[in-house]
Every structure is written in C-alpha cells, then in structure tokens.
Amino acid sequence: MKNILLILLTIFCIGQKTFAYDCAVGGIAYNLNYNTASVTYFSMEYNHGYYFREVKIPSHITYDGTTYTVNTIAENAFINCTKLTSITIPSTVTYIHGEAFAGCSSLSVLTIEDGKQPLFLDAKTTGFKYYREGVFADCRINKLYLGRDLRYNESEEWPSTQYYPPFYNNVPKDNKNTLYDVTIGKDVTTIPS
Length: 193
Fold this sequence. Notes:
The strands form three sheets. Strands 1, 2, 3, 5, 6, 8, 10 and 14 form an eight-stranded mixed sheet that branches. A five-stranded parallel sheet has the order 4-7-9-13-15, with no helix packed on it. Strands 11-12 form a two-stranded antiparallel sheet. By secondary structure, the protein is mainly β. Helices cover 7% and strands 31% of the residues. It has a single domain, classed as Alpha-Beta Horseshoe (Leucine-rich repeat, LRR (right-handed beta-alpha superhelix)).
C-alpha cells in the first residue's frame, strides 16, 4: 500500500508545473528574503514568452501585507526573453547577476534610474574558464540612460581584468555597433573602462 501511495505521489509531482519564484506582483516574479525582493524568472520553459516589450521594475513591492525593497536581478531572471524590448532598473537595485539578460536579443532600450548607490554587475560566463562577457552582451542596446555609477563584481576567481564590461559584445553579427544614444545622469561620478 505504501508503494502504491508513493508511486501516485511521484506521478502527481512530476505532472505539476514547478515555478522558481515566491510571488508575482505586477507581472514580475520575485523571490523574497526578509524585507528585500529579487527579480527572478517564472520558469525556464515559460520565461521566454512571458516578459513582453517594456518592463519597468518597481523599487518596492507589497505582498501579503509586507513591503519589500527590490534590490537584485537574479541569474536567469530574463533569460531568453526575446520579446523584451525595454527595461527600466530602479535605484534600489544594487546587483545584477551575469546571466540575468542572457538571450534577450530584442532588448534595445536600457534605463538605469538615477541613484547614489552604485550598481554592481556580474559577468556572463561563456563556458570557458577565463572568458566572460558583459551582462548585456546578448542584447542589442540602442539607447542607454545611465543614472548612476557602475561597478564590476570582482573576485579572486574572476578578477575584472579577465572579463569584459557590461556592453562588450553588444555588436550583432554584421559587426555594426548598435549603441548610438547614451545619456549620462547627474549622479554618475565615474565611468569605468
């Protein structure tokens, strides 16, 4: 009897669609941690068709009566969102993981809102030990509003000299650079390499 119950439970679990988020607010998936929220993906199979055109990440969300500060964009958050054309990142987001925008081939407008805190950017791994690409390498950014300082995530394993800045490889196969409109906000004090 126990074996039959275990088999039925296993079949039920396999048939269920699993999601990788704690909540969804305003059409964006989040993982929650104390008083902070991290933008994440809905599911690996579903993500590419979900985030359409323009996405504006809010600085705060309220879920179940609690308000959370949105402070991170997680790895794979927008992976393969080929219909995503514009993203706005609020000043509360202080870290973007390297694979967050992997495969976002239509992303052409990036707005990093004004803020005093720098935005730390990880790098996208390409499978080679010492070769990494910028966070937006898969994107065709045409228009950029940079409202605060950028910093690159550094570690002993991946020092910043071993990978490229966020927009490196932002060139399609025809070798024409797509970034043509850059506006730098008043809160930017340094521009890294």
